[in-house]
Amino acid sequence: MEKGLIGAFAQEKIKNALKDIKNKKEEKKESIRRLIALIGEPVISSKMEQFFFEKFGHSVNEKNLDERIAILKRELSEAENQKNNA
């Protein structure tokens, strides 16, 4: 992530979230989940989500599933728009 397409602000937020995940900061758990849901790059968001679940465990509940469904719907919509505009 040193010299990529990601902005400095986003890079700093992601780095801080990764530190919080590594240190298992329970009080930051929900804000980390929200940040992961906002990340539009599928590779980064899926890796962060994987790391999150490795540290905090799988806590599948309706809210998490709804967030994941919303993300996937948004990605599907974006892909369909790109396909239609190509």
What is shown here, in short?
Helices cover 74% and strands 0% of the residues. It has helices at 8-22, 29-38, 42-56, 62-85.
Protein architecture, described:
The chain has 86 residues and is mainly alpha-helical. The protein has one domain (8-85). 74% of the residues lie in helices and 0% in strands. The chain has helices at residues 8-22, 29-38, 42-56, 62-85. Helix 2 runs antiparallel to helix 3. The chain is globular. The relative contact order is 0.10. The mean pLDDT is 85.
Structural features:
mainly alpha, 86 residues, 74% helix
Instruction: Report the major sheet.
Output: none
**Mass-distribution shape:** globular
> What are the segments in which pLDDT stays under 50 over at least 5 consecutive residues?
none
Determine the N-to-C terminus distance.
Answer: 29 Å
Structural category: mainly alpha
Mean pLDDT across all residues, rounded?
85
Total helices: the number is: 4
Helix percent reads: over 70%
Radius of gyration: 14 Å
What is the total tally of β strands? 0
How do the SSEs run, as a string of H and E? HHHH
Strand content: under 5%
How many domain units?
1
Give the SSE map.
Blueprint: H1 8-22, H2 29-38, H3 42-56, H4 62-85
Helix pairs in contact: 2-3
